[in-house]
Amino acid sequence: MLEKDIEKVLISREEISQRCAELGAVLTEEYQGKNPLVIGVLTGAVPFMADIIREMDCQLEMDFMDVSSYGNALVSSGEVKIIKDLDTNVEGRDILVVEDIIDSGRTLAYLVDLFKYRKANSVKIVTLLDKQEGRVVDIKADYVGFDVPNEFVVGYGLDFMGHYRNLPYVGVLKPSIYKPIN
Ligand code: 5GP
Ligand code: MG
Ligand code: MG
Questions:
Q1: Which of 6, 50, 105, 115 sees the fewest Cβ atoms within 10 Å?
Q2: Cα separation values, 75 from 66, 78, 106, 143, Å
Q3: How many structural domains does the chain have?
Q4: Catalytic residue, candidates 51, 94, 100, 103
Q5: Would the CB of 102 count as within 6 Å of ligand 1?
Q6: Contact (CB, 8 A) for 67 and 10
Q7: pLDDT tens track for 59-97
Q8: Quick check: 133 and 150 in contact, CB under 8 A?
Q9: Whole-angstrom Cα distance, residue 38 to residue 67?
Q10: Which domain, by its residues, includes 87?
Q11: Among the residues of the chain, which ranges form H helices?
């Protein structure tokens, strides 16, 4: 059903699961004895968050934040707005931000500044995908799943107009889906 809209698969389900296990092992060491607050950026990070925390063999807490920068557009508006804030006080906490993809870097730059302003003890970033060519703001993830080219990708959390987040892999849509002929 969904697969008919996909032009090509960039990262398979197996590759994602393998990489989650690798990253999880590194994060397990990093956060041993630290009780990090793992913050998922809604909504795209949900599948990655669910997988990565189950590969982390240490005490941790979870929270979520929703910020908007994209709306339904294919390119970033450059604006970041808090839609849902954390329920947890981050002061003195070791924060691990979980993102689906870093493109311009604006969302994460904003969040890292915010958590530092709120006196977090440390702030690190794990992102499933890194689109380095899209970078406008100077920000680097501490842990990256995969580098991706400057293409609009969907699946494993990433949406087009709210859809395709539930694809178990990362792929590129057929042009006919996002460029309807009329
Ligand atoms: P940034 O602030 O780094 O430009 O953008 C981050 C957000 O933009 C991501 O969390 C994601 O929601 C969205 N985004 C960036 N590139 C893509 C892409 O290729 N596909 C999809 N579906 N969303 C993207
Ligand atoms: Mg995101
Ligand atoms: Mg989106």
A1: 50
A2: 18, 9, 12, 24
A3: 1
A4: 103
A5: yes
A6: no
A7: 999 999 999 875 555 555 567 899 999 999 999 999 999
A8: yes
A9: 16
A10: 3-178
A11: 13-30, 46-53, 106-117, 175-178
Q: Residue 21 CB: number of other CB atoms within 10 A?
A: 13
Q: What is the mean pLDDT of residues 38-58?
A: 98
pLDDT of residue 17: 98
Task: Note if 51 is an active site residue.
Answer: no
Does residue 25 sit in helix, strand or coil? helix
Ligand 2: centre distance to CA 101 (Å) = 6
Q: Which residue has the tokens 């993809």?
A: 101
The percent of residues above 90 in pLDDT, for the chain, comes to: 90
Q: What CATH number is associated with residue 74? A: 3.40.50.2020
CA of 160, closest atom in ligand 1: 22
Give the span between the Cα atoms of 129 and 46, in whole angstroms: 14
